[in-house]
Amino acid sequence: MKINIDFGFAEWSLISGVALYLNSEIALGVSLCAIAVIAATLRSAVRFQNQQQEAEDRKKLHMDFNDAGIGLAGAINELFVSPDRKKTVH
Q1: For residues 13 and 67, what is the distance between their CA atoms, to the nearest angstrom?
Q2: Whole-prediction pTM value?
Q3: What is the pLDDT of residues 26-82, one digit of tens each?
Q4: How far apart are CA 17 and CA 23, in angstroms?
Q5: What is the number of alpha carbons within 13 Å of residue 62 lying toward its C-beta?
Q6: pLDDT at residue 90 above 60?
Q7: b/e per residue, 25-58, with b = 16+ CB within 10 A?
Q8: Helix residue ranges, H only, the chain
Q9: What is the spatial distance between Cα 44 and Cα 52, in angstroms, rounded to a whole number?
């Protein structure tokens, strides 16, 4: 599993909120910490949705390749194995 660490808005909001909270700016510090939690949750939800979409796309592509392989096998079978095939191919 690949671990990806982003240091973005949520992390900066959390650091700023804790710093403000420790410097007696309690309301602003708690507000920034709450914003950080919400932002991190939303970012995780978007990532999870993107991963699910990529998995569905890979599954659809695999099914398309499988269907193409079945079609190709049927064409080859009809060309070479068919009992009513002609001696020449035009």
Answers
A1: 50
A2: 0.62
A3: 999 999 999 999 999 999 999 999 999 999 999 999 998 888 888 888 888 777 775
A4: 10
A5: 6
A6: no
A7: eeeebeebbebbeebbeeeeeeeeeeeeeeeeee
A8: 9-22, 26-80
A9: 12
What pLDDT sits at residue 83? 64
The confidence score (pLDDT) of residue 69 equals 85
The letter for the amino acid at 18 is: V
Q: Which residue has the tokens 């991190």?
A: 40
Burial environment of residue 21 by CB neighbours within 10 A (0 to 12, 13 to 18, 19 or more): middle
- The two three-digit tokens of residue 28, written as one number: 């602003």
Report domain extents, the chain.
Answer: 9-79
Residue with the two structure tokens 């991963």: 51
